[in-house]
Amino acid sequence: MPLLSTLRACVILGLTLVAGCAGNTEPGAEPDPYAINDPIEPVNRAIFSFNLTLDEYVLKPVATAYRDYVPGAVQKSIRSFLNNLNSPVILFNDGLQGEGKLAGDTFARLWLNTILGLGGLMDVATDLGIPYHDADFGQTFGVWGVPAGPYLMLPVFGPSNPRDVVGFVAGIFADPFDAAMSDADADYVSYGRGVISGIDTRSRNIDILDRIQSTSLDYYATIRSLYEQRRAAQIRHEAPPEGNPNP
After folding, report:
1. Is 83 helix (H, G, I), strand (E, B) or coil?
2. Who contacts 17 (Cβ-Cβ below 8 Å, separation ≥6)?
3. CA 184/CA 161 separation, integer angstroms
4. Cα–Cα nearest to 143, from 33, 22, 244
5. pLDDT tens-digit profile of 120-174?
6. How many helices (H) and strands (E) are present in the chain, helices listed first?
7. What is the pLDDT of residues 40-75, one digit of tens each?
8. Which of 31, 93, 124, 197 makes an SS bond possible with 148, Cβ 3.0 to 4.6 Å?
9. 118: exposed, middle or buried (Cβ count in 10 Å: 0-12, 13-18, 19+)
């Protein structure tokens, strides 16, 4: 389809441009959590305000209902299933980052949870001592030394930067599940997956985000700093700072 071909071309161009900005940056050196690279801050703050309104009236109420009324065992199965769907892209990025141990863990998790865990509904791998970890193309670019670029606040999706935007789009095209749904003209399934994943993530961060908002003199600046810190920790393959919300 012409539209799909155009989108793919844009992704390839974006990846080329991002890769060309690599320079000599050390892996994990960007972003600097204490440096402010926010040249369009007024625009970002306006989008942040929109996101807060959307969260207050739609996302948070839905996530709260999900947390309070969906049985914990069902939430756990949904999260395990979603994590299993993410495994092929995680495995690919583990390899691109040269993380052999993590790639082996992801490969083992994929097969154990798919076969013994009924398609991922049960997290057998974690029970066997193989914990889940995440990896994406934005992180991979960071490991390669590609600069993050200026801070961006995206509508609905929240904090990001040009490197992670390109990585996000690349992840969509690299995802075999999304590709299968697209080939079957069932893109709505992929959209539903994204919505459920967002609700699940938001439900696990309700209390911590409420606490951050209530104690922050500038909530926007606090979220910006936490995002930069968390992303830098992920690129270095370290645990994020304590109290840093899960994106």
Report:
1. helix
2. 166
3. 32
4. 22
5. 999 999 999 999 999 999 999 999 999 999 999 999 999 999 999 999 999 999 9
6. 12, 2
7. 999 999 999 999 999 999 999 999 999 999 999 999
8. 31
9. middle
pLDDT of 2 reads 41
Packed helices 72-96 and 162-174: angle between N→C axes, nearest 10 degrees: 100
CB within 8 A of 5, min separation 6: which ones? none
Contact predicate 6/128, CB 8 Å? no
Tokens 């911590």 sit on residue: 208
b/e map of 66-105 (b: 16 or more CB within 10 Å)?
A: bbeeeeeeebebbbbbbbbbbbbbbbbbbbbbebeebbeb
Burial class (CB in 10 A: 0-12, 13-18, 19+), 226: buried
> Would you say the pTM of this structure is higher than 0.70?
yes
Domain map of the chain by residue range?
Answer: 2-235
Contacts of 22 (CB under 8 A, 6+ apart): 144, 145, 146, 147
